[in-house]
Amino acid sequence: MQPVKYDADGRIVVNDTDAIVSWANGLPFTADGSLAVSGDLPVVVNGGVPAGADGKVTVSA
Q1: Which is more confidently placed, 41 or 55?
Q2: Which residues pair with 3 in a beta bridge?
Q3: What are phi and psi of 51, to 5 degrees?
Q4: Binning pLDDT at 50, 70 and 90, where does residue 61 land?
Q5: CA angle 9–56–29, rounded 5-degree value
Q6: How far is 37 from 18, CA to CA, in rounded Å?
Q7: 35 is in which domain, residue-wise?
Q8: What pTM did the predictor assign?
Q9: pLDDT digit string (tens) for 15-48?
Q10: Which residues does 4 contact at the CB level (< 8 Å), separation at least 6?
């Protein structure tokens, strides 16, 4: 399983530019272990996790 990286405040480190290289538990990860995120409009996939058309998890800022 791909490791999830956390910052000093305990938040998941996310990456909105690098390509997805692996999936774990339905979530996309980049090569450095960051969760791949997108600013696209959400499309529900992978058990209800909102993702953009590129397969990256969509988050709200």
Answers
A1: 55
A2: none
A3: -140, 155
A4: low
A5: 60
A6: 9
A7: 14-58
A8: 0.74
A9: 988 999 998 888 899 988 899 998 777 788 767 8
A10: 12, 13, 29, 33, 35
Please tell me the distance from the alpha carbon of residue 49 to that of residue 20, in angstroms, as a whole number.
Answer: 16
- For residue 30, tell me if it sits in a domain: yes
Q: What tokens appear for 49 in the block?
A: 């996790």
Contact between 41 and 21 under an 8 Å Cβ cutoff? The reply is no
Q: Distance (Å, rounded) from C-alpha 5 to C-alpha 13?
A: 5
Domain count, the chain: 1
Contact 37, 19 (CB under 8 A): no
Residue 41 lies in a domain: yes
Structure tokens belonging to residue 44: 């529900």
Locus of tokens 């953009």: 52
